[in-house]
Amino acid sequence: MGGMRNTLRHPMEQHVDSKHVSFAQSRCFNHAQREAAARCPECGRFFCRECVSEHRNRLLCAACIAEETAKAQLDQKRNFGSLRMVFRIALGVLVLWGSFFVIGKALLSVPSTFHEHKTILEDDWDSS
Prior knowledge:
Blueprint: E1 38-39, E2 46-47, E3 52-55, E4 58-61, H1 62-108, H2 113-116, H3 120-127
């Protein structure tokens, strides 16, 4: 048994290499009693008409459609995640700029006579 690989197979899967089986001899992966009507180009398994669906102009099995959909959703989340991060950084910069602008305006509105008076600390230094 040294040369045999231990692989998990679907209970209905034929133990024959599907690359060497003619299409006429093939059976559905999910329904062993039915003739195969199509072969999934992604996984290479044979399926009856009931088990394949058209997805992006190709006949795929349900498992491969689910896998492609999950990959597409993950890619979309990644793309929107980076866009969301850029938006958050831009918003943060805008909030900081607005805060400094308002503080600067408030400091500029302070009359210059306010700065000419002695502060409490200066009075304490003079009396010492």
